[in-house]
Amino acid sequence: MSLRYPPTVERWCVFEVSLPGPSDGNPYTEQSVCATFTGAQETVRAYGFYDGDGIYRVRFMPSFEGAYTFVIESSFADAQTGTFAVMPASPGNHGPVRVSGTYHFAYEDGTPHFSIGTTCYAWTHQPDALVEETLATLADSAFNKIRFCILPKHYIHNFRDPVTFPWEGTPVSVEGLDEQSFLDGSWTPVRPNEWDFTRFVPEHFRRIERCIERVMALGIEADLIVMHPYDRWGFSKMTKAQDDLYWKYVVARFAAYRNVWWSLANEYDLMAAKAPEDWERYAAILTERDPYRHLRSVHNCLHLYDFTRPWVTHCSVQRVDVYKSCELVDQLRQRYGKPVVMDEICYEGDIDQGWGNITGQELVRRFWEATVRGGYAGHGETFLHPDDILWWSHGGTLHGESGARLRFLRDFMATLPTCDMRPAQASWDVPCAVPEGEVMRADPSFQLHYFGFFRPRFRDFTLPEGARYSVQVIDTWNMTVEDRGMHEGRVRVELPGREYIAVCLRAIRN
Amino acid sequence: MSLRYPPTVERWCVFEVSLPGPSDGNPYTEQSVCATFTGAQETVRAYGFYDGDGIYRVRFMPSFEGAYTFVIESSFADAQTGTFAVMPASPGNHGPVRVSGTYHFAYEDGTPHFSIGTTCYAWTHQPDALVEETLATLADSAFNKIRFCILPKHYIHNFRDPVTFPWEGTPVSVEGLDEQSFLDGSWTPVRPNEWDFTRFVPEHFRRIERCIERVMALGIEADLIVMHPYDRWGFSKMTKAQDDLYWKYVVARFAAYRNVWWSLANEYDLMAAKAPEDWERYAAILTERDPYRHLRSVHNCLHLYDFTRPWVTHCSVQRVDVYKSCELVDQLRQRYGKPVVMDEICYEGDIDQGWGNITGQELVRRFWEATVRGGYAGHGETFLHPDDILWWSHGGTLHGESGARLRFLRDFMATLPTCDMRPAQASWDVPCAVPEGEVMRADPSFQLHYFGFFRPRFRDFTLPEGARYSVQVIDTWNMTVEDRGMHEGRVRVELPGREYIAVCLRAIRN
Predict the structure, then answer these.
(1) Which tens digit of pLDDT belongs to each residue from A325-349?
(2) What is the pTM of this model?
(3) Fewest C-beta in 10 Å: which of A121, A131, B252, B258?
(4) Residue A427 C-alpha, separation from nearest chain B C-alpha, in angstroms
(5) Does residue B314 sit at the A interface (CB-CB below 8 Å)?
(6) Environment class of residue B422 by beta-carbon count within 10 Å: exposed (0-12), middle (13-18) or buried (19+)?
(7) Pairing, β B43-50 against β B55-60
(8) What is the DSSP string of A236-292?
């Protein structure tokens, strides 16, 4: 018996069994390992993976407490068994995030998840010191989801090689590569790529796992982007067999982390080498091999993915209109009948690209628009930096003004009886949310009106008959909440005549 | 011979012949008068009108210089003739505004008209002192077009009776009318309207004529709104015969003023008593009875009029989307093939209505969006005022920040070789205009890029091969123009990282 595994594990944490095996030949393609885990309330079959140095691992995330047994089978050893105990979840561990109702999210223990995401595409590929800086920034932020890529990124501001590569081999040389030669397409490498796509570099994946664990500890979901088009290494143009090997390896390594969300791609529609059936094939691998049914979506550039596909759990949207982004959330909800996450809506910054140079005010306005329309938005930041360290790709430190206001948004939402919002047509100009379940109710628990770039000096509200409501005026930019007393019938609410004001009316139940 | 008329008139000014006639019975319905004016280059038949006190008038706007004769005919006297001379236009008199090419405007003498309109619906119905204040504000403004109503306006902030009414009779009492009773529909007048719709009050129309003349002297076009829905007097619900009498009277009185544009309605689609065929009938009256072919359009609330109708000279648009207004100008140009005037795009102000409480920044942004997309925008202002004097209806004084920036826009446009702009697809994020006639030209005379709410720190431009361009960075809000030298090939233009910046590239021809 050469199995190694702990006697106990926390519910929704990673239980890992390792065993030694052959390191000769190509263990990634010639060997296989999997295990079946059985407790009183579930039986889960999980695929394992080769982690280098003659070690094979199978990971499992238990969804229940109590006694478990497992059987591990492999291509190189007899089946073996073991037992372990699943302990209660510790505080802060609420399980994986699931779709809640139709349009929202909650952790498996029922705790609501009001998603406030950010994007740092390549942060796990940076040197350790920068990774630590990013983690410190995240710890001090409002974010509870972070989007990032497994594969390295090749794009302006992203010409440095990653700290590790996912495959064994030699990367194309970067000599002569700069923004100009990138943009005008004149760069020709002096040394081509040489990769063995059948041999992974475990350390590349371990770095990502450490990052997944670290953000998990901060209560942050890891929205893993498995494929993307910004590539000089050929990783976006592998064969079907190479892709499938990669997908299976990724799912085997990462699926047991409770905070994982699957983003099949960033900007899938820019990956010219992939056809619609490729995406469906990756999805089939995911649905077969991720027994925990983590959230799944595909992020677009110009054309939304077909979010009606049954395996898509939520809409992960990059805005496709220069002027309207989160203003379309209610339409997207109607069209797809799934949660709408506006993951890319332009970033706060000052770079030369129109997707990365809006003000903090405009970014925060989009978050509130998404919120009162019953959806979720995503942050990003792209300020020019002397060392080309931009939050959007590299992480590091935030320089913008939106971060504090997103904290304010998250804190404000936590004061409501529910953060599951549904758009209610209260007026033609000002979007309004009520609790998701109460849209048909004449006297909803609250109404949250958001004025955006409108800046009236007052607004009249007609409160539901026979009900008393408290009135709050929220300055979403200056981060103040003013109580304006309790009212019945028709009430005129004086407003500051500035942009970015919300009014919250809360029912006082007797 | 009891005709009265001057011996000379300036080209494109009003030549008026008056003659006495019966004042008994109902001269408005029982008598008629018209005249034919003949010069070397035109023969024009014009309908006249009864102006009260036994005086009938026929007005004529000559389009050419030289000797003219006329014959005047009436239901009450023998035909009479006369002669007069048309003198050259004085400086500042460029004739009526016409459509120029497909998408733009020019005065009849060829001078371009870069339309910067404003709206003061009821300014001619205000007391004289306020009318004078409005004229003083206009004289000091960038506006070269003003939209206003012939008929009085009934709406919040507009409950005072006008100084004059268009018809003889008694208006409904205003007792008990206030914003609350207006909005909740609870107001019931204690004394109903009593009007004789066959008897006009000439002084009401004379006041308007004086205003048309005064703004003409300021170089401002009078965009006359003939009908509108905001009415407590029944003027929006007259019979077909009453409507037609009104339309003929209006055209007979106003058509000879060179600065008149016809707006058949403000928010035609809110006039529930009118059917599509009514609007076409009014248009038929206009095309028959306005021999000068003044510009004609119909302004909407929720649904654009069918601007493809042959008598519609240009699109007069109220934005129908809360978030996109002038951003749609290029689409509207394509759809209708006519000049696009975004006459109502929300007003700078702080009232409680979403159509009247945006910032000056946002209003000016919309003007520049309209401009670089090859269209035109309209201003309005709605700040709460202790005496309910809001520019949008009453005129008076401007309190906002947009006015100075619109002057800057107008002045900047005058520095370009042409103000006829055509949208050119230069990049996905930043709209760009080139001269209308040069869109197919590889090296247009200029490119005007407008960054709106984007705020990059720099932008790279690839200039047309073999051409030299001067570069200007325009801060459209802070009203500065910085010259950045002359360049060829690829040029990186440093930008201030603020919103509302434009870059103008001007070809240097040898």
Answers:
(1) 999 999 999 999 999 999 999 999 9
(2) 0.96
(3) A131
(4) 9
(5) no
(6) buried
(7) antiparallel
(8) TS--HHHHHHHHHHHHHHHTTSTTEEEEEESSGGG-TT--HHHHHHHHHHHHHH-TT
